[in-house]
Amino acid sequence: MKEPTAKPIKTSVTPATEADILAVTIGTPELLNSTVYLAEYDPDWPVIFMQLAQEIRGVLGDSAGLLEHVGSTSVPGLAAKPIIDMVLAVAASADESAYVPQLETLGYKLTIREPDWYEHRVFKLPEPKVNLHVFSAGCKEIGRRLAFRDWLRHHPDDKTLYETTKRELSQQTWKYIQNYADAKSAVVQEIMGRADGKH
């Protein structure tokens, strides 16, 4: 396999401005103003996900469609922020009344609402730390997140490239965690370009 290059590539992802972050955040966005802590991979992460998924399905019942572990904590051996990222598909993510009250009974708090980006919603759980991303069933962003996870699980060169990039960026100071996430977009697109080329 050709070694991945670390050179920056052009990206169509425009980094979020502070105004962008304020516009989609419910309440006051949490300031980071620091570097980003990356933990070594913890084999308990998928176990925690399974427990959380069971709880979510318990309160949502048939309203819960696909529910998957995504993000770096879902890739064995990959260092990550110790936050479990999950993606949930519901019939219509804009219809908050169909799922928000049920998730709130488990302690999840709706923190981000993006009507202009696939009607994306983000919930946070403080303990264990969780980011729950909600989209409508069939949303192409769900497929993209799953494809990225699966590619990293089976391609160690790209997993190393991604981890090296994350470690370098994590040492910088970021005002918001979204700024750190946006800074990774070029390498994510580079890797996804290879993943898409293989399908």
Question: Quick summary of this structure?
Answer:
The protein is of the alpha+beta class and 199 residues long.
What count of helical segments does DSSP give? 7
Q: Runs with pLDDT <50, length 5+?
A: 1-12
Tell me the helix content. Answer: 25-40%
Shape: globular
- The percentage of residues in β strands lies in 15-25%
Rg is 17 Å
- Gap between N and C termini: 16 Å
Walk me through this protein's architecture.
This protein has one domain (about 20-195): Beta Polymerase, domain 2. It is globular, with a radius of gyration of 17 Å. A hairpin with a 5-residue loop joins strand 3 (about 110-115) and strand 4. It is of the alpha+beta class. A 5-stranded mixed sheet has the order 1-2-5-4-3, sandwiched between helices. The chain contains 7 helices and 5 strands; from the N terminus they run ααββαβββαααα.
